[in-house]
Amino acid sequence: MELFTNLTVLSLEQATVLPYLTYRLAVEGMKVIRVEHPERPDPNRFVGRDVLGEEGMNTYYFPNNVGKKAITLNLGGEEGQALLRELILKLDVDIFATNQLPRNYKKLGIDYERLKSIKEDIIWLGITGFGPESNEAAYDPILQARAGFMELTGEAGGEPMVFGLPMADLGASEHGYGQIMKALYKRAATGEGSRIDISMFQSAVSWMVNPVLLTKSFGDRITRRGNTHEFFAPVSVYETRDGYVYIAVGNDRQWQAITEQPGFEGLYREEYKTNAGRIADVKRLNEAINQVTRTRTTAELIELFNRIGVPISTVCTIAEVVEDPHIKDRLITARDPRTGTVVFLPPPPVITPYLESVNMQLPFPPRWGEHNEEIYGALGYDARKLAEWKEAGVI
Question: Where does the pLDDT of residue 239 fall: very low under 50, low under 70, confident under 90, or very high at 90 and above?
Answer without folding.
Answer: very high
